[in-house]
Design goal:
Elements (H helix, E strand, L loop, with lengths): L23 E6 L3 H17 L7 E6 L5 H9 L6 E9 L5 H20 L3 E8 L2 H6 L1 E3 L2 E2 H12 L3
Parallel strand pairs: 1-2, 1-3, 3-4
Antiparallel strand pairs: 5-6
């Protein structure tokens, strides 16, 4: 189904719950803060709705999406953290910078999860326009922060 016809944040309740004693780290890019702030709000709200204690949610900021991988690694290496959620937003510009950043961030976040054998979730918007980012940060297509939080919850069930 085309994303323009669907709230992308709809999810199944399968493998949710049982997270009241889990700890979640969230690393958030400061660049495009209007968007990343909305993603963070959605992620925290969703974790709380799932039963995570507020004190078990650790939020850290990095300058931009490129720094999310290292920020995620700092959190993932902590034994007390059960899952890491990486939130950022990269909007297409007039140069190839977008391609390099998106590729590096996706690979970096994946590698951190594999290195530490724990969920490290890719909650990064990679859009063509600011409007598309707004639509996916609490707008008509839902909130990618909520999706990332649910994914983290589900992945802690292994």
């Amino acid at each position: 189904m085309a994303s323009n016809l669907k709230n992308l944040s709809d999810y199944s309740d399968r493998n949710t719950g049982g997270v009241e004693n889990k700890q979640f780290g969230i690393v958030v890019a400061e660049w495009n803060e209007t968007i990343t702030g909305a993603l963070l709000e959605g992620a925290i709200e969703t974790l709380l709705e799932q039963g995570v204690k507020r004190d078990n949610i650790k939020v850290h900021y990095v300058p931009g999406s490129f720094e999310l991988s290292l920020g995620a690694q700092f959190l993932a290496q902590k034994e007390t953290i059960d899952a890491v959620i990486s939130l950022g937003c990269v909007i297409q510009g007039e140069t190839r910078h977008f391609d390099f950043i998106c590729d590096a961030v996706a690979q970096g976040i994946t590698n951190v999860g594999l290195k530490y054998n724990k969920p490290v979730i890719f909650g990064v918007l990679t859009t063509d326009t600011m409007q598309q980012a707004l639509d996916r940060a609490g707008g008509k297509h839902g909130n990618k922060g909520e999706e990332a939080a649910i994914t983290a919850v589900k992945m802690t069930q292994f």
